[in-house]
Amino acid sequence: MNTQETVILRFENLTFGYSDKKTVLDEVNFSIRENNKITIMGQNGAGKSTLFKLITKEVTPTKGSLHVTDGATVAIAKQVMEEVHMEKTVIEFFESAFEEKKHNLPKLIDDALQIVNFSVPHEKKIKDLSGGQQARLLLGHALIQKPDILLLDEPTNNLDDEGIGYLTAFLMMYEKTVIVVSHDENFLNAFTDGVLYLDVFSKKIEQYKGNYSDVLEQVKSRIEKEQRKNAQLKKEIQDKKDKVNFFSYKGGKMRKLASKLKEEIGDAEENMVGVRQEDRTIVPFTIPAQHMTKPIVTITSVTAMKNHETIEKEVNIELRKGQKLLIKGPNGVGKSTLLERLANNKEKGAVLEETVKVGYYRQDFSGLDFSETGYNSLERVMEIGDKETIFRTAAQFLIPGNILHNEVGTYSEGQKALLSFARFALQGPGLLIFDEPTNHVNFRHLPVIAKALDAYEGAMIMVSHMPEFVEKITFTNELDLGKIIA
């Protein structure tokens, strides 16, 4: 049999739930052939990450089965570095990718990291690298294994344009199976040839042929067709109901006709198409700003990274109410580290107004307490907890009551992102600090979020790799770390 026709992965009537009350996938069936490049699409909380956990055997099906071709290897590029690796050096981290010792490991490391346009001393400790650099190591850790099934979870989130270009070229040439979760349309269109669509409402998985844009059009066309069919059936049902109401009060044959029409109404209602409930977009919202009259942030110098060494450069930046700073620069220059020090008031060349409330969005959501419920997470940022306000705000950000009482650690990455914005809306900070706020957020929500941030009347500092998002926000200041250390 031609390898192009060989199925490497198959789900058969597979059901999975984290509890009896939380079914994520319900009797799903699909198969993936060798060498296919597949995109995973679906709403927030639909089970995209769960699908990866099933494939890597981190979790097991509740019912049904999952088959991987005998001998096929699987590797996943996770989004966040596990704490257990932080004290390791780069070379020790990559040693964990293999069961047996590789004598040419240094070369293999450099080759793998070249794919994502990154180089780093092999004796460097993981904990001394930025979040973006750690993400590239995680990607390299999966690539170095050259697995038969490569799983990529939002691989472009921490890559600059050049890094995305390198990765795209590699995946186009990779002669094995790739399954990727991403919201980056241009990236996906370059190499994927099929889509698995996870529906959070039906808990089913649908399989499509074509790239990301093709499938979006197919889904849109299908929904429009289903809506037209339903509209026609509704009209027919209403016409028959009107006739039933008329004939029911007549005698003899008229009453029999009314009975027959009732049966036809039942058949028509059964034929109504279950139109897919697409992602709802969050409603427009505002983030109230703490009243501040003095300068909120004054920065006279910043710390950055050059060739993995820390250097300090003088700057002259002052942010008052309504002013916004965009921080730019290539991966590895220290953007995330700078934001963390600013948020914690530990950047020695920066002074925060002593009474300012800071809202800090970390790209890995480590600022959230994963062990507390969503409700408690929102209540904690309010001066006076108000149950009605908490539930109303959560609903605005598509976090319903049944989800609100779950632990934050059980939320999808997209839900954690929306929870973070809900917290800001309740906190009313004087300074907002954002580290890649578009990561994990459904593209439908981004214009609404950009509009809210543009209207925000406090001070704001942001790092973002998405130009089309940044362009929607008016920045009064810009700091390019790459240029000041050149």
Structural commentary:
The protein is α/β, with parallel strands linked by helices and 486 residues long. The protein is built from 16 helices and 17 strands. 35% of the residues lie in helices and 22% in strands. A hairpin with a 2-residue loop joins strand 10 (297-306) and strand 11 (309-319). The protein is globular. Helix 7 (212-247) packs antiparallel against helix 8 (253-270). The N and C termini lie far apart (56 Å). The strands form 4 sheets. A 6-stranded mixed sheet has the order 5-6-7-3-8-9, sandwiched between helices. It has a 5-stranded parallel sheet with strand order 14-15-16-12-17, sandwiched between helices. A 3-stranded antiparallel sheet has the order 2-1-4, covered by helices on one side.
Query: With helices defined by DSSP (H or I, 4 residues minimum), what is the helix count?
Result: 16
Number of strands: 17
Straight-line distance between termini: 56 Å
Helix content: 25-40%
Any idea what the radius of gyration is? 26 Å
Topology, please?
Blueprint: E1 7-19, E2 22-33, E3 37-42, H1 48-55, E4 63-68, E5 74-77, H2 90-95, H3 105-114, H4 131-143, E6 149-153, H5 161-173, E7 177-181, H6 185-189, E8 194-198, E9 205-209, H7 212-247, H8 253-270, E10 297-306, E11 309-319, E12 324-328, H9 335-343, E13 350-352, E14 358-361, H10 374-380, H11 387-396, H12 401-404, H13 413-427, E15 431-435, H14 446-455, E16 459-463, H15 467-470, E17 477-480, H16 481-484
Helix pairs in contact: 7-8, 10-13, 11-13
